[in-house]
Each structure stands twice: as structure tokens, then as C-alpha cells.
Amino acid sequence: MIGDPIAVVQVGAGSMGRGWLATIKKNPDVRLVGLVDLDLDTARASAAGTGHDGVPVARSLDELGVEADAVINVTVPQAHAPVARQALAAGLPVLCEKPIAPTVAEAQQMAAAAAAAGKLLMISQSRRYFDGFRQFRQVVGGLGTLGSVSCEFFKAPHFGGFRDAMDQPLLVDMAIHTFDAARALIGTDPLSVYCETFNPAWSWYAGDAAASAVFEFPDGIRFSYVGCWCADGQQTSWNGTWRANAQDGTAIWDGDNAPTVERLDGSTDVPPAPGLPEQIAGSLAEFVDCLRTGAEPATTASANIASLAMVEAAVLSSDQGRRVTLGEVLGG
Questions:
Q1: Which residues sit opposite 213 in a β-bridge?
Q2: What is the number of domains present in the chain?
Q3: What is the C-alpha separation between 242 and 182, in angstroms, rounded?
Q4: Which of 163, 12, 162, 157 is nearest to 76 (CA)?
Q5: Residues 6 or more apart from 269 whose CB is under 8 A from it?
Q6: For the segment 312-328, what is each residue's pLDDT rounded down to a tens digit?
Q7: Does 142 lie in the same domain as 172?
């Protein structure tokens, strides 16, 4: 495998799947050897539309019958677990789209399956791979003892479909991006959360489209999240707007550009953008590197459970109107 393109099978050929197929096509370190989707016409059309004409297609991994080195799981969240378990049982490492699973309990089972198989199960948390976020992490890491982090997220997407009918569309479908980024930035896992959600009077969602949450991290660090998914006007980046206050200064990131910083010594310099692959291209590049070197990514299934637990704990806190510890949803 070292030096040669890694042969991958992708499972899932819908809209997100097409994005992954295009990303695979642009990466010379991987080659697509098969595509799986319940709808073969969709699979063929997605393959042809992304430059993978003639690639074998099938409705399941078993039917495909090709030699591969790894599987990329781009199915709907409810299918993440069965697809991952089947691939792992076949001895294939898996790169899986977020969220790892619909529930923490299912995610824990997936992590256990990966451990039993002795194969990598990596979750793609694409927001970690923005150059601006990489710069922000580096700047914040140089500001000494961290006190607080906040993120505001205000967008107004008219998706239609299942999101409009969800009980907690913002928290369940979107907030994991922000919560995972907070874990990456702070460098530890949260202890507890208090969250309130509501639905503005003009909302087109059936469930609560707005939320406010405060997570407590070790050493007294607080992460505050305020978001709304029906916020027309003055919208934030899809990455949100971030502020981190620490012992030696404050850093701000608008979610799109390079961060800014003001230190106590008056300096404002920011390290240059690393120019590495971004978003899902970054996930794929790290996955390939880990397969070739044996390194462990930060978003293994066992580690990424904590990001999903933040979502589940926030929903539970809102439903029950109380502070919830992460241990309650993790079973600890």
C-alpha cells in the first residue's frame, strides 16, 4: 500500500457522496475501485458525473466483489453502523462521515467493533481542516492558560425535507461541527452542559431552531454556544464566529479568513496559513497518511464519541431543563 494509490470503495452516492467522489478524483493517493448505493442508477450517474466512468457499482459491499484497501462510508447516519461493521469485519479500515452514529450507544458499539477488528475507524470532522481554524488553534495555543471560548452561529438555510420536521434540527444536524471544533481547540473533553433551546416565532422548522449552551471543561474553562438556523440578515460563516480569551490575550476567528489576535505584550502577528488540504479533502489526506504510517488520527471512533455526546447531552439538558454531565450520556 505504501507509495501506491490506496484502493477505496465508497458506500453512498447521494449529494454528499458526489462531493466525496469528486474529492477522491482529485487525490492521486487514492483510486476508486467500487461504488455502493441502493439505487444503482444514482450510483452510475454520480460516478460518471465525477470522472469515475465505468467503476463497478453494486447495492452492497458483498455484491461488489472487488479487492480494496479501505472503505469510505458516506451513507445516511442510520446506515453508518451496519456499513462500518461489515467493512471492519472484512478487514478494511473505514473513513466515515459525521456523525459517527445517531446515538452515543451505537457509536460506542462501532468503536468496540473497530477495536475488535484491529482496524482504523476514523470519523470525518471536516471543519477541523480549514486553514483559518488551524491558524486559530495555533494562536490560541500560544496564549497561555485558557479561560473561555465562545462561538456564535447564525444562518438561515431553507433545506426543506427531513430537517424541517426534526425536533432539534440545529443541535442534532449541525451543532456537532461546532462542538467537535471546540474540543479540538480546547484540547480536552467537556464535563457538563446546560442548554436551552427554542423556536423563533417566524421559524419554518417544526422543532427548535435556536439554542444557547454553556459547556464546562476541565480547569474551569467554559465554552459558550449561541446559534439559530432561521436568522436572516447579518449571517455568520458556516463555521461560526469564534472568540477565545486566555491569560496572555484574546483571539478572534470569523470562520472564513485568518484569525486576529491581541496579546498583552501588544503583538498581533498570526502564523501563515499552512496551505494544507481543507474540509473533506483534509479528512481524506489524513486518513491516507494514517493508513500508510500507522499514526492515529484525532478523530478515531473512540475519541469522536465525545463530540456526539456533547450533542446528546445538550438535547437532554434542554428537554429536562437541568445541567447534564457528559458521564450521563456516556454511561460513566
A1: 195, 225
A2: 2
A3: 10
A4: 12
A5: 261
A6: 999 999 999 999 999 99
A7: yes
